[in-house]
Amino acid sequence: YPISIFFIVINEFCERFSYYGMRAVLVLYFKYFLRWDDNVSTAIYHTFVALCYLTPILGALIADSWLGKFKTIISLSVVYTIGQAIISISSINDLTDYNRDGTPDHIPVHVALSIVGLILIALGTGGIKPCVAAFGGDQFEDHQEKQRTRFFSIFYLSINAGSLISTILTPILRGEECGIHSKQRCYPLAFGVPAALMAVAL
Question: In terms of CB atoms within 10 Å, which end of the chain has fewer, N or C?
Fold first, then answer.
């Protein structure tokens, strides 16, 4: 097996953990931190998910006609990691809690950061989606059909393992209490761990 396969499988595990972990608590973040009602939370959530499934077209175009698979994965993973970091920062209650009463004083700051973070995440996750599996397949020679087949089995196992573990773990992290001035549900931890894993993936 080419040594690069190890990195591609670990990358995919971390990236899927990052995406599904962040998504697992996103509606709760909208409702209880940003204080949006059910309709707005649902609309923004589904718009974000739709954007994540639309941007692979952009990623494929960038990879095929401009940067190639590897540079597309690297550059959009940087965008993705920045987006995850921004949404983690946006969820820090004490960022705008000037009077230390336990609630943010300037929700629009948190909303703006969240929207920017989500757009960058959608560009990142969608942009690399059409490239990573194909890039993995490119690592094998023509005579390595058996190894290539096994790689795709392990690759899809890593996708599902990352998704499963993150969907269980991040709500638990959100349930912790954290904060400098007042204790709150720990959205920074729930978003921060996926952001850290995206940095590992990068």
Answer: N
- Predicted local distance difference test score (pLDDT) of residue 179: 77
d(CA 55, CA 126): 5
The dihedrals phi and psi of 180, each to the nearest 5 degrees, come to -85, -55
Q: What is the pLDDT of residue 158?
A: 95
With a cut of 70, which residues of the chain have pLDDT below it?
none
What is the DSSP annotation of 47-97? HHHHHHHHHHHHHHHHIIIII-HHHHHHHHHHHHHHHHHHHHHHT-GGGS-
CA distances from 83 to 18, 115, 159, 165, 197 (A): 11, 9, 20, 21, 13
Report d(CA 31, CA 42) in Å as an integer. Answer: 9
Token pair recorded at residue 141: 């020679």
* CATH number of the domain enclosing 168: 1.20.1250.20
Specify the pTM: 0.91
**How many domains, in total, are found in the chain?**
1
